[in-house]
C-alpha cells in the first residue's frame, strides 16, 4: 500500500491539524495487517471522529474527550466504583468538592464541573442508555464535604435508581472477597449502532481504553460476578442508601 508521507502525518496529528483516514484507506490497512475483523469497529470510530465535537469549547485532554464522546453515544454503560460516586450520578456539590480536591493547579474548577454535569444529560436523552452502576459501600460512606452534602448525594442516587434506564446496586462491606478487589473502578461501554464496545479505566492522571475481545470478555465477566456479590437492586440497595444517608445527615461536623 502506497500512501503519501503527508497523509500519514495528518492521520497521526490530533486536533485541527489532523485528518481522518478514508474508509477505503482503513480497509486497505486492515488487509495489510491481516485484521479484517476490526473493520466495523474502526469505521464506527471514523464516523464518530467526523461528527461535531461538543467538547471542543472545554479544551479537554484528548483521552478524556474521547471517553466523553463515546459515553455520549453509548447504548449501554456498566460502571463499577469502589471509592467515589460515579461521575454520571454526582450532584453538582459533590462533583465540585471532588474536582476541587483532585484537580491540577492549572485547571478551571467551574469548567470541569460543567463538563461533568453536561455528561449527565445522556441519562434523560431519547433514547437513553441503559446504565448499570455498582457502587461499593466505602464510596457511599466516604465523606466528601459536609454531612448534608453526602446525604443529598445519596438521596440523589435513590432518585436515579427510580429511572427506568438506571439500575443501581450497592456492594456492601460484608460481601467479602469479590471479583474487583484489585480494581478501583472501570466502565464497559457499548455503542450498538457503531458496533463498538470498549473498556475504560481511569487513574489519577491517565485514561486507558481497551477494545480487544479478551479484555472486554474479562471485564464484562468481572462486572457480572460483581452483580452476584452486590445487594439486589431495589429494596436491599435502597435500604442501605437510606441508612447511610441518615447517618450523614446526623453528622454535623
UniProtKB/TrEMBL annotation:
<protein>
    <submittedName>
        <fullName>Putative dNA-binding protein</fullName>
    </submittedName>
</protein>
<feature type="domain" description="DUF5753">
    <location>
        <begin position="64"/>
        <end position="234"/>
    </location>
</feature>
<dbReference type="InterPro" id="IPR043917">
    <property type="entry name" value="DUF5753"/>
</dbReference>
<keyword id="KW-0238">DNA-binding</keyword>
<dbReference type="Pfam" id="PF19054">
    <property type="entry name" value="DUF5753"/>
</dbReference>
<dbReference type="GO" id="GO:0003677">
    <property type="term" value="F:DNA binding"/>
</dbReference>
Amino acid at each position: 500500500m502506497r500512501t503519501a508521507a503527508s497523509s500519514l502525518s495528518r492521520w497521526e496529528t490530533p486536533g485541527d491539524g489532523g485528518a481522518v483516514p478514508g474508509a477505503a484507506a482503513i480497509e486497505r490497512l486492515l488487509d495489510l495487517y491481516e485484521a479484517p475483523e476490526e473493520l466495523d469497529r474502526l469505521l464506527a470510530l471514523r464516523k464518530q471522529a467526523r461528527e461535531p465535537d461538543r467538547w471542543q469549547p472545554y479544551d479537554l485532554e484528548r483521552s478524556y474527550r474521547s471517553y466523553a464522546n463515546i459515553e455520549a453515544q453509548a447504548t449501554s454503560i456498566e460502571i463499577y466504583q469502589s471509592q467515589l460516586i460515579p461521575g454520571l450520578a454526582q450532584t453538582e456539590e459533590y462533583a465540585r468538592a471532588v474536582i476541587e480536591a483532585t484537580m491540577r493547579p492549572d485547571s478551571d474548577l467551574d469548567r470541569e464541573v460543567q463538563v461533568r454535569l453536561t455528561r449527565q444529560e445522556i441519562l434523560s436523552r431519547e433514547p437513553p442508555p441503559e446504565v448499570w452502576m455498582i457502587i461499593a459501600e466505602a464510596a457511599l460512606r466516604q465523606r466528601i464535604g459536609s454531612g448534608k452534602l453526602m446525604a443529598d448525594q445519596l438521596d440523589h442516587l435513590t432518585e436515579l435508581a427510580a429511572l427506568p434506564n438506571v439500575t443501581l446496586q450497592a456492594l456492601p462491606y460484608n460481601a467479602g472477597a469479590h471479583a474487583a478487589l484489585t480494581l478501583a473502578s472501570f466502565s464497559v461501554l457499548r455503542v450498538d449502532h457503531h458496533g463498538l464496545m470498549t473498556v475504560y479505566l481511569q487513574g489519577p492522571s491517565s485514561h486507558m481504553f481497551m477494545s480487544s475481545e479478551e479484555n472486554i470478555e474479562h471485564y464484562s465477566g468481572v462486572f457480572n460476578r460483581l452483580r452476584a456479590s452486590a445487594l439486589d437492586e431495589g429494596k436491599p440497595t435502597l435500604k442501605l442508601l437510606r441508612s447511610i444517608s441518615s447517618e450523614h445527615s446526623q453528622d454535623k461536623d
